Amino acid sequence: MERFLAQNWTVIQPALFLVFTGLIVLLVDLWLKEEEREWLAYFSLVGFGGAGVIVVRQWLAVRGLETPITGFGGMMVLDTLGLLFQMLFFLVGFLAVLLAPGYLTRRRLQRGEFYALLLFSTAGMSLLAGAQDLIMLFLGIEVLSIPLYILAGFARPRLDSEEASLKYFLLGAFATGFLLYGTALLYGATGTTAFEALRASEAAAAPRENVMFMAGIALLLVGLGFKISMAPFHQWTPDVYEGAPTPVTAFMVAATKAGGMVALIRLLYWGLGPADDVWRPLLGVLAAVTMTWGNVGALLQRNVKRMLAYSSIAHAGYLLIGVLSGGVGFVAVLVYLLIYALTNLGAFGVILLLEDGEREALDIESYRGLARFHPGAALLMSVFLLSLAGFPPTAGFFGKFLLFTAGISAGLTWLVVVAVLNSVLSVFYYARVIVKMYMQEPVETPAFSRSWLVAGALAVAAVGVVLLGLYPTVVVRLITA
Amino acid sequence: MSAQFVIFGLLAVTSVATALAMIFSRNAVHGVLFMVGNFAAVALLYVLLGSPFLAAVQILVYAGAIMVLFLFVVMLMGPEPAPLWEHIPGQRPLALLFGLLLAAGLIAAVNVEELTGVPGIMSQEVLERLGQPTALAQTLFERYLLPFEVTSLLLLIGMIGAVVLAKREKHELQAERAPREGGAE
Amino acid sequence: MGTADFVEIVVKSLVIIWALLTGFAYMTWFERRVIARLQSRVGPNRVGPSGLLQPLADGVKLMFKEDIVPAEADRALYLLAPLVAVVPAIMAFAIVPVGPSVTLFGRTIPLHLADMNIALLYFLGLGSLGVYGVVLAGWASNNKYALLGGLRASAQMISYELAMGLAVLSVVMLAGSLSLVDIVNAQAGGRWFILLQPVAFLIFLVTMIAETKRAPFDLPEAEQELVAGFHTEYSGMKFALFFMGEYIAMIAISGVAVSLFLGGWRGPFAEQVPILGVLYFFVKLVAFLFFFVWLRATLPRLRYDRLMHLGWKVLLPLSLANVVVTALAVVARDTGFFGLW
Questions:
Q1: A294 lies in some domain
Q2: Which residues 6+ apart lie within 8 Å of A150 measured at CB?
Q3: How many structural domains comprise chain C?
Q4: CB-closest option in A4, A117, A135 to B160
């Protein structure tokens, strides 16, 4: 018992807070009528906010420390990197909850489980951010993913939602198999699952002499690659992002990518650091393939959700540059993920506005002449799309700038060249939507539903995108302080 | 020949025989029962290996809970003989191949000392220590406390998922019923 | 293991089996007499003094009944099912200590067959195996009433086993052991667990009736709806075997309940005079059995949805809450938080 209480519980405090909020949501849901369930959204906001406060306090406390705090026998760590990632997760969760209630009410999907699953999934990410053991890495990814499989099918009687859920689940389960197998092989090769011991193992020092170790790395990369939709393991992305309820898609786009990235960083640098000559070239090539495949795919789409899905694949490719750069690259990854999350949440927020429970603005043609009916929405959408494309002075430009400079200073010039070319390519499909909104005649009155919560989320996202574009150094200084 | 060896022999034959019978039985209910028999035989093998806790859990969880649910489902669905064709062609030879590979791997693992000269980790003493509930509890609730608790969260999420995806809300039921009732009027 | 130990085990096993079979026989007499009294009737009183030889007469009658196997039945399973219903019930009694150790022929003999550190898991495991007998009987008979009875039985037993396991868990936490011998010893000095765990006791009381499929939880054999449920098609000794299973299960589960909550064989001077311990145990056991009979004479059968409601929405949350409270109390005790102990 003493040993139970002696575990360092602070390292999982934010996750614990989210899980308990989720449990309370589930419990309270039992006594609420359908029209009262919107309160659960507000309660979840409190959950994300509270977890955010915890993380910020921990960050302030941990910042000056030389050695990071560990807990649970070294399975979890409390360091600035993990805490900053957690802040990002909770911000995304907060904004995603803002997007949800209106949509859920219109579709008669207002159920407490929605918010609980969102909270649980974020708790999984939070665990992932501090994982220092293959077991925790695996469990974090599962706690992150399984709620998303369910959420993707939340609009259940609708066929595309069911399809999204099933596809995501089946392929996700398959990817989990790779992840587990890789974990098992690494354990077999080194006799340990702890990152610290992995780093110090003989196999990591001379990876090429240990086939089991190499195979383990490869399988883990496949599994994680699926989670961040890295080509060629990205096939599920468009279908799932298209079919899932839009608030869920927004959350997935912004949060799972960040969760996958932090998992990748933890595994590669904390666990497999000495073996970097194995994974570095492999990941570099995959990054190039990913961004190109994503952008070309996006060019061919007519459905806005699918287009954004392919664009998210491309962004995963850009982000891998930061991962590969290490050190400064992590800052670039964090800032880029923040900007990317705000931008995508904003874009999906606009899509949510252009929806009335029956019609949804999914086809690119439904954006024709939008500026004439809803100039505000069109303007916001344009800002977000330009930021995704990386136009100055939006934040997207600054994010890409950070990533690419990090890449060049790490000697990845060829990859940065590929990325720049890809960015140019991407302008075409982002701009296409803007052209439709401003320069073409409308065909029909677009569907529209007003929502203060969505408007609030959009405001946060828009202000964030603009301010980060105008005063980019502030956030970098804050992070590296 | 010691009494232990005789008991082991009986159990080994029983477990293999029930496993084979389960695979080859055409009747799903019989299959389930052979599997229960197999679980029981394996559980007794655990007792023989000095791990009564594992044996009890095996009976309680697999034979007592999971297989009852299997039986429940099979009975609800009615007896449906297994189809003679294969859904995925080529499964059987592959299954045989992989089964043999697994057997080879397991035999090698058991005889690790004879094959490599290095004694395996699982000596008699280690096994006896691990078989005790206290040792298991210490592993689960001290060393692997966090993974254990996170796994329980995972199971909870799975349950929520089953409810969310299977349960019909009242208004959905009404929507389904409405056209039928409308037609009757 | 010496020869003497082996002989001891065999003798004890035989004694237990003999006692349970006799107990079964006289349980039928006991039940009929008690229910008759509760309903202002007389009950069987013709065969022997006070009808004491009635079970014997019933046995003879059942032996000579025609043994029918329905034409469309799954013959092997049809024959197997009654055995599966009886055997786990008999095996369950092995862990129950019926008294303190006695000294016979110069050997110290503990009055229980097996003192395992997993005894209660063994008990719960056997309880879950007992479902198979009923389910298989229902399925093998190839009769829709029997099948429905079997389905009901499996759903009911699975549902109530959870709450029962959790109720047992609260006691286990207090005693710090899964062994019934240790649990009985932990109740020395009149500190019966029924006093510390009244909620767990009530939950166990309800679930033990449901697990043995006794009234008011006898839906698997509800005669008004399902003829006789899972044993509709059975006749002769096979029919009797189901009753044997049910009654022996009642005895075994009462034995466990006595050990868990009522201090087992413990009582004044039981340690000095072992036979007194056995007597105490027997009295407590009979009290439980009387309770079973009393309930059957008193309560109407539950509706099926109420049964599920009770199991999942009342007993399960209650037992979970009880486990949580107990756990907190145990922590407080071990860390000296309240200073009560």
A1: yes
A2: A113, A117, A165, B157, B160, B161, B164, B165
A3: 1
A4: A117
Residue A295 lies in a domain: yes
> Are A472 and A398 spatial neighbours (Cβ–Cβ below 8 Å)?
yes
For residue A467, give the amino acid letter: L
What ipTM was predicted for this assembly? 0.90
Mutation site for C-interface testing, chosen from B4, B59, B129, B163 by largest number of C Cβ within 10 Å: B59
Shortest Cα–Cα distance, A405 to chain B (Å): 39
Q: How far is residue C213 CA from its own chain's centroid?
A: 10
Domain ranges, residue A195: 14-480
The matching CATH number, chosen from 1.20.1600.10, 3.90.180.10, 1.10.760.10, 1.20.120.1200, for B1-80+121-131 is 1.20.120.1200
pTM: 0.86
* Count of C-beta atoms within a 10 Å radius of residue C62: 17
**C127 lies in some domain:** yes
**C335 near A CB under 8 A:** yes
pLDDT per residue over C254-300, tens digit each?
A: 988 988 888 877 777 777 777 788 888 888 888 888 998 888 888 88
- Cβ of C10 under 8 Å from any chain A Cβ? no
d(CA C100, CA C102): 6
Q: Tell me the per-residue pLDDT of A236-286, one tens digit each, with 9 for 90 and over.
A: 898 899 888 889 999 998 888 899 999 999 999 888 888 888 888 889 999
C116 has a chain B CB within 8 A of its CB: yes
- A169 falls within a domain: yes
Structure tokens at A163: 């399809």
Cβ pair C244, C255 in contact under 8 A: no
How is chain B split into domains, by residue range?
1-80+121-131, 144-185
Domain membership flag for residue C213: yes
Tokens representing residue A23 in the block? 């449990």
Q: Which residues of A touch B141 (CB under 8 A)?
A: 4
**C335 contacts on A by Cβ (under 8 Å):** 1-2
d(CA A49, CA A57): 12
C-chain residues near B133 (CB < 8 A): 117-118, 178
Here the tokens at position A209 are: 């002499």
Rounded Cα–Cα distance for residues C173 and C323 (Å): 9
The residue range of the domain holding C250 is: 68-334
Of B27, B52, B69, the CB nearest to C116: B52
Place of tokens 């032996």: C63
Give the tokens for residue C25.
């026989």
Residue C35 within a domain = no
Q: How would you write the pLDDT of chain A (481 residues) with one tens digit per residue?
A: 555 556 678 888 999 999 999 999 999 998 888 888 888 999 999 999 999 999 999 988 888 787 888 888 888 988 888 999 999 999 999 999 999 888 888 888 888 889 999 999 999 999 999 899 999 999 999 999 999 999 998 887 788 888 889 999 999 999 999 999 999 999 988 888 898 888 888 888 888 888 888 999 999 999 999 988 888 888 889 889 988 888 999 999 888 889 999 999 999 988 888 888 888 888 999 999 999 999 999 988 888 888 999 999 999 999 999 999 888 888 899 999 999 999 999 999 988 888 877 777 778 888 888 888 888 888 999 999 999 998 888 888 989 998 999 999 988 899 999 999 999 999 989 998 898 888 888 877 777 888 888 888 899 999 998 888 888 888 888 887 6
Q: Which of C77, C118, C158 is the closest to B56 by Cβ?
A: C118
Measured between beta carbons, the chain B residues lying within 8 angstroms of C143 are: none
Interface of B with A in 117-156 (CB under 8 A): 141-147, 150-151, 153-154
Count CA within 13 A, CB hemisphere, residue C277. Answer: 23
Q: Which chains border C (3 or more CB–CB pairs < 8 Å)?
A: A, B
Q: Does C331 touch chain A (CB under 8 A)?
A: yes
